[in-house]
Amino acid sequence: MQDKNKIIIGTLSAVVVILVIVLFAKSNPANEVDTTAVATTTVSGTTTTGTATVKPATTTATPKPAALNAQGTALPAQFVLMVGNTYVLPEGSIFTLKNVNDSRCPTDENIACVWAGNVTVKANIKKGSYTKDIEMTVGGASYTHSGYKITLDDVTPDKGLQSVVTKEGEYKLTFTVAK
Predict the structure, then answer these.
(1) Model pTM score
(2) Which domains, from first to last, does the chain contain?
C-alpha cells in the first residue's frame, strides 16, 4: 500500500511540475517557440515521466474602437438626405436639410454656359436651444460642428435638359461626417 501511495505522489509531483511549466509558458508573452516540459520523478524504484508541449501564444491586435455616429456606424460615415430629412450627428445634434438651389448648367446642346454652376443647400443644426443655419456647396468647404466635419459630397440627379425641371423633393444629397 505504501508503494502505491509513493507512486501516486510521484506521479502527482510530475504533473504539478509540468503544469507549472505549462502555465509559465502560456503566461510569458515573450514565448516565441514551442516549449516542452518534461518532468521525471522516481519513487521507490518506479520512475514516472510526463511531457507537455506548449505552442506559442498567438496574439491578435484588437483594433482601437472607431468613433461612432449616433446610429452606431463607424466614422467617417456617409449619409443621404432629401429635403426635410434629418440625420443625428455623433454628439446628438440634429442636422436637417432645408432646401436645395441648383444653378448647374443644363445639358442642352444649344446652351453655352459661361459658368458650370453649382448646387447649394441650406441646412439647420439643432441641439436643445442651440440652432445654427448653414449653407453648403457640393465640393465646397466643410462645416465643422462640435469637432465633427460635415461635407456635402454629391447630388443626384445630374442636371438634365433645361426643359426638365427637377423638383426640390427629388434631390438626393450625399454628406460625409468625420471626426
Answers:
(1) 0.59
(2) 2-54 (no CATH), 77-178 (2.60.98.10)
